[in-house]
Batch of 2 targets.
Target 1
Amino acid sequence: MIPFILRRLIQIIPVIIGVTLATFLLTWLIPGDPTNVLLGPDASEEARERLRRSLGLDRSMAAQYLIYMSNLLSGDLGQSLSFSRPVADVLVSRMANTALLAFAAIVLASVAGVAAGTWAALRPGSLHDRGLTIVVLFLNSMPSFWLGLVLILIFGLQLRLLPVSGMAPSGAGLLSLAAHMILPTITLAAWSLASIARMTRAAVLEVINNDFIRTARSRGLSEWRIVLFHVLPNAIPAVLTVIGMQMGFLFSGAVLTETVFSWPGVGLAMFQAIAIRDIPLIQGGILMLALIFVLINLIVDVLYVYFNPKIKLN
Amino acid sequence: MQNIEQDKITSSILSVDSLSVCYGSRKKPIKVVEDVSFDVSAGESLGIVGESGSGKSQTMLAVLRLLGEGGEITSGNIVFDGRDIRSLSNHAMKRVRGNGIALISQDALSALNPAMKVGRQMAEPLVVCDGMSNDASRRKCIDLLDRVGIHGAVSRLECYPHELSGGMRQRVLIAMAISRNPKVLIADEPTTALDVTIQAQILDLIDDLRKDLGMGLVLITHDLGVVAGIADRVSVMYGGRIVETGRTEQIFDAPRHPYTVALLKSIPKIDQSKSERLSPIPGLPVDPRAPLPGCSFSARCEYTKDSCTRSRPALLFAAADGVHQFRCPVDPFGARPESDAENLSRSGGRG
């Protein structure tokens, strides 16, 4: 298992290089002049030129990329233009908030999604199976910012049950934190929940018609035991792939949710960075999201081997 | 005659009486099993022979109440060990499965859970249903694997099904089936997925276990050769009905139904010359969605008369013992010359 993980870690390197190249080139494609942001529209051409030179913006594209990469390897992601702090500091300080939200969302989406999908698959064509299909379609076609706003409207403004914005002030306690998390978590989880439920339903339906399920029944095992120990372990690998992909989407998808709920995470910082062309922060943010995406996929692959013993590690 | 019937029912461990099974909606039911009756006593073996789609597997699934989605027992009685299977609660039915009646499926690879180690899979009902300790169940599994002829049982417990050979998987499935000392063992084509050499070993093993443990055995197969060596009695099924039933030697030596005769003729013989061709049965199996009004075999039978297509033939007695029965009013083989019978009997060796 360890060599397998190491091999997969090495395979990450070209992916990361590709991502840095892409993000680096992307910033050249974005119209607008960063000196405009830093010095304002009224600055003189001389002052702009000086700033460009001090930032290295007058060098060739290749030279800029090499500088960027060498800084990157020493852990320097550059200086955020909008926060006036190192990009790494900004991202790390906000990562915990984003991760908290993403993990809460993936746990909610996985548990509820697998449960709902299994429940529907056990009686295909029944009333609750069809009901689930409608709910899934609804959740899957709803943009998260719209769902977020509706939730704010209902639970925050009408019923006044839950806080609608920001994180709990420091020292306010776990309960307050949980209350602040409920609406963003639901908003973030909705789309993933629907996808996971749909995948689970299909996977369970496929497994449940297998002969070994009949064998298990013919041996007098109870129905819930068969679902838990025979159906789900065989359906989970397919679902895991979807959960892994959703996990990646949740980190990047948090941009919209965090913005709607003013959740102080990476997503909100990215939104602000894009609005004012804070290019180092955009690059650093994308790089970090890509890294998370790749690492999650690695974890999924490892779990895959665990759940499906037929996969040979070499 | 009435007394003999009565005796048979009281001594049999599993008896099925005019069972019918339908699939599909109530408005347009598809009958896959119609008016099937048979019984098995402890230690006795019954072969059920028929081609694909003849309803033989569905009959057995009905006995275990494990019919697929949309399947339903529409009439008939199933009595196991004095209990009426159809009226048992789900909970009581769970105790019958595995404990009273065990099933061996045909394809051992798909019949075993691919994601669970063999040992855990074998032990699961022992621990969960019989309350055995983990240690005791492990010892029992090792004994069982030894019993079915798997060497190095201890290491096999840690294997996944795909790590075993086909023959070994079938042995594991057999070990699982006998693990809770069932009174009836249903073997649904237990050898179709195996090499010919392994087939004979597996059949011998099943037969040995039947004798040692005194189980009633129902052996389902499409291969008359398979039942020849093992079964005490044979029922031949066609189109969801039993068309002929009798003691094995009666079926092989003096078949009365044209379908049974045709089946026997289609078995290749080792002493057959190359110029002599096998005689396949012309036509296709009957489609349960378009059932024939009369005899289900009438469309393919060379002895069909007008009356065959009009009404369902009743079971007729072929011999005075009341065991050999068949469903053919035409009865073209009723008074056969002696030489013909010898020819047919030679054809029945193990395939």
Note: Residues 67 and 175 of chain A are 46 Å apart (CA to CA).
Target 2
Amino acid sequence: MRLGALLRSAFVIGRRDFTATVFSKAFLFFLLGPLFPLLIVLLFGGIGANVAREAERPTVAVIATAADFARLEQAHSALERGLRGVPLVRLRRFDPDRDLAEQARGLLASSSPPVTAVLSGLPAQPRLTGAVRSGDQIHAQVELLLTQARAAPGSPVAVETMARASGSTASARALTAHGGQALLFLLTLLLAGMLLSQLIEEKSNKVIEVLAAAVPVEAIFLGKLFAMLAMSLLGITVWATAALTGLTLLASPGAMEALPPPALGWPAFAILAVIYFAAAYLLIGAAFLGIGAQASTVREVQTLSMPVTMAQVVIFALATAAAADMDSPAGLAAAAFPLSSPYAMIARAAQDGAWWPHLLALLWQALWIAVILRFAAGLFRRSVLKSGPQRRRWWRRAVEAS
Amino acid sequence: MLRQAQHLRDEAAAAYAIEAHDLVKDFPGKRAVDGVSLSVPEGSIYGILGPNGAGKTTTLRMLLGIIEPSSGHRRLLGHDQPLHAAEQVGYLPEERGLYPAMTSREAIAFMGALRGLPLAEGRRRASALLADRGLGDWEKRPIRSLSKGMAQTVQLLGTLVHRPRLVVLDEPFSGLDAINQEKLEELIRAEAAAGTTVIFSTHVIAHAERLCERIAIIAAGSVAFEGAVDQARDQLRPIVQLRTRSPDGPWRAALPPDARRQGDSWKFELPPGGPEPLLRALIDGDAGIETLSIERPGLHDAFVAIAGEAAAAALRTGEAQ
């Protein structure tokens, strides 16, 4: 069958699936769905951010003489021994320049290393400038370090808060990366599950035979896969519109501007997020459809999809762990492995401003989508209409045994 | 020259809506279809007869390209790849399948769209078809709210909505009450009268006998007979039913050895010599003929003779179910 005819047939199947899903009550639940993942994202994102904060302790640049810094470092070591398990700020010394204010601004803007705050005016007039607030953890720790370092009591640390520092931006970007990954993962998992239930429903109500007699099985496969993708993109559009409207109406003026943008900027990040979502969904959805074709009951699907879901969780965990250090061997492996690549790359989009890795990754993912689609479509064709006696496969035996 | 040869081949192929040669289908551990060959003339009503499990559905699925044969060839409306002719084919599977949430009109239009009919035209035709069958009030009701018979009618209309050249019906009468069976027979006749080729499988011989011009009898995966219904009946000699006043006498020698007594009558195949020598022997032997009828055998008798008593018994079990 020619490609045009195949795509036409896939469109007929996809249009039916899309309208049937979008005009059903279930779609309303689907639209409400993100409320639950959002809670999970907030929870796990928060935990992730804490973990990240622990792993990447804020760096405080200290503008001081070597002697003053040595006393501070001694105090740091003593406290570190005393407060075992409590992550203390990292200290980096810089020789004082002539214009201390200008030097502090320069250090806060620099990303090598990402600096959260600058401590200057040692020892008599200590001053902490950057993404700190009076009484927060960084301020409290610096106060404690100075008390420990001084022989006699001195002036308290003055705090000057600045909206953005390279360190706080890195931390916010790490949070964006974790959030993006979690959202991508949950949405993909949800859709793959929906796709599978729809296929099983069709197998059980015998519609599949009517379809297969009229159009190639590959068209059924593609139609179903892309209908669910279109449905989810519609959902994403609704959610994005609702989120933007909500933020515009509810957030205080200037709050949006204060939100640190991902490394590639919000528009590019949003576009890449949609593309990586589509890639992740097509890779996982195709695999799920191929697997779903082997099963004929919901129980069989549950038995079959469980190991796949667990594998997906492992892949997600790999991508999440790799996000902390994208250029490490683990980070590069997560970006190269097709199933984890979309998750790893969305994290990179949040944290790294280079475009070329995304172009390369998208080409790589497109290649794997083609390979997996072809393989899964073949699996689907061979299995979905199998009739007559069959060998009892291991999962059938497992289901029967249970 | 080559083009002319191709044209002649196409013309020959066009005379048959379906041609199958030595179709074989193996499933793990079982050969479901074993060398089925058949030819369905364009515009005819063709029946595939056989007990449950004989391989009728598997044969139809192979003919339609739903599953691939393990070996053998088939041509559907002149195409080696059956799906290339999908837009000219309508198919009603044995296990009916409709989306329960779809309305009747949408279901029919969707089935038309699968076969290349634009959705808007499909909806228009669906409304007309439903109204023609007195189901106009149900066109916007979901399939799940219809009775089984109504849902079956909707699926049948979906099979016909794109006005196919070939209609394939797998056990179309099963699950229908007597009135709906009669309506379906009328519909099949009307389709054939309009030039559509209709092929259907059944395990109820009466339907095939009333409707079909040609049949294939399938037993245990093989074609035991393929040809015109008359040819099948001609496989048996005419059946004689005889009632005499005299219970016994020299006339009994005129009856063939396999003559069976049924109540106060005798039933047997007309001897090869024909009716005249039989009549003469009966009269000369003082049989006292009360009634004597010579009838062509029915398709059921032919089926028994062709497929064997075991297949006929299986068929009767299926009919009873």
Note: Strands of chain A lie at 59-63, 90-94, 117-120, 127-130, 158-161.
